[in-house]
């Protein structure tokens, strides 16, 4: 992930998009917004496009100009601005792994997230995968060189550190039953993965639900996705989905709300956590 301050980042674009929405709602122009900052309209344009880091006084001044009186909203924007500044300066371990490519920006955001909600229709979520499962995935994909596969294993297990420590990240995973029955590696690898999934699901900050085959067709079969939260639940969420050769960031409020709405629908269709664990255990015993 680039660390230059003069780059557009996902966090800054999310914040800039929110400020743009607030400015439009207030019926103000970029020059009018620039005036309160004693700046140029070009600076406001760069801020709204996420090209520059945000100063707290600027965020507060713009919120006041736009008539934002909800302290929670202002606090969320300031928190996001702070996270973006920290990410621009940070030199995380993922920056030393060029093989990650575009995934580096996602990992940088994952490092500062407070909660991740993930829908997976074919595979176990990366944060809950065992090294053996990860290695088997690498063998069956285009990761042909042993060193590349071990880099994949190391990278994914390092990411899982976010689920431990004094302030672990909250994880809510909803899995289609197919992800549990889609055998990756041999039966020993898969059973070990399912047993690990059950153990992780018993942690207070990890919630696992299974959507069984019974409910029939649902929109979730279109693809897996993650929703990353950085502040209070539902505030300034960012959606993330992978496609063949590309990634999709859902940064605007409408897009992120659409992802949240779909996740909530899938969660409601799924088994309760306790019943989900019973199903996982039953599938594991049958391996």
Count of structural domains: 2
What's the story with the biggest beta sheet?
Answer: 6 strands, mixed
CATH architecture of the largest domain: 2-Layer Sandwich
**Distance between termini?**
40 Å
How large, in whole angstroms, is the Cα Rg? 21 Å
Range of helix content: 40-55%
Strand arrangement in the largest pleated sheet: 3-2-1-4-5-6
H/E element order: HHHHHHEHHEHHEEEEHH
- Might you state the CATH topology name of the largest domain? Endonuclease, Chain A
CATH class wording of the largest domain: Alpha Beta
Low-confidence parts, pLDDT < 50 over ≥5 residues? Answer: none
The overall pLDDT, averaged over residues, is 85
What structural category arises from helix and sheet content? alpha/beta
According to DSSP, the number of beta strands is 6
Q: Count of helical segments?
A: 12
């Amino acid at each position: 992930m680039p660390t230059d301050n003069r780059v557009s980042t996902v966090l800054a674009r999310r914040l800039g998009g929110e400020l743009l929405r607030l400015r439009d709602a207030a019926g103000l122009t970029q020059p009018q917004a620039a005036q309160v900052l004693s700046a140029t309209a070009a600076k406001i344009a760069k801020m709204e496009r996420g090209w520059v880091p945000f100063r707290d006084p600027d965020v507060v001044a713009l919120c006041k100009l736009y008539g934002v009186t909800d302290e929670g909203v202002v606090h969320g924007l300031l928190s996001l601005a702070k996270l973006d500044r920290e990410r621009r300066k940070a030199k995380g371990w993922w920056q030393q792994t060029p093989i990650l490519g575009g995934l580096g920006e996602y990992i940088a955001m994952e490092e500062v997230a407070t909660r991740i909600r993930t829908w997976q229709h074919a595979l176990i979520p990366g944060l809950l995968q065992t090294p053996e499962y990860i290695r088997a995935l690498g063998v069956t994909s285009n990761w042909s060189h042993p060193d590349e596969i071990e880099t994949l294993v190391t990278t994914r297990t390092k990411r899982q550190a976010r689920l431990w420590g004094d302030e672990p990240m909250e994880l809510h995973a909803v899995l289609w039953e197919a992800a549990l029955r889609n055998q990756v590696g041999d039966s020993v690898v898969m059973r070990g993965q399912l047993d690990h999934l059950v153990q992780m699901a018993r942690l207070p900050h990890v919630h696992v639900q299974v959507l069984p085959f019974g409910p029939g067709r649902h929109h979730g079969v279109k693809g897996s996705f993650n929703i990353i939260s950085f502040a209070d639940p539902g505030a300034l969420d960012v959606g993330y989905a992978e496609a063949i050769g590309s990634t999709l960031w859902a940064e605007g409020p409408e897009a992120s709300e659409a992802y949240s709405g779909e996740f909530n629908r899938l969660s409601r269709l799924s088994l309760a956590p306790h019943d989900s664990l019973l199903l996982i255990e039953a599938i594991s015993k049958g391996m």
